[in-house]
Write a structure and sequence with these properties.
It comes from Escherichia coli O6:K15:H31 (strain 536 / UPEC). With 70 residues, the chain is an all-alpha fold. The protein has three helices and no strands.
Length: 70
């Protein structure tokens, strides 16, 4: 029974990574904080994390462009 469950979980992980995603381990504290933020905004934690990273990257790129213009 455990082998079947393990095989199903492994296949699920493979399917999730088919879109180019990677496994990311978060500490328990950070995971709880992410879940709290996501819940308050009504979105899944994975989507919340993606949005936070995309925004941070946009800010980083804009800051780098500003530096090169100065």
């Amino acid at each position: 029974m455990d082998e079947l469950k393990s095989a199903r979980e492994q296949q699920k992980r493979r399917d999730e990574r088919a879109d180019g995603s990677v496994l990311l381990k978060l500490s328990g504290k950070i995971h709880k904080q992410l879940e709290s933020i996501a819940r308050s905004r009504g979105v899944p934690p994975k989507k919340m994390l993606n949005e936070m990273i995309e925004q941070a990257h946009r800010d980083f790129v804009a800051n780098e462009q500003h530096k090169t213009r100065s």
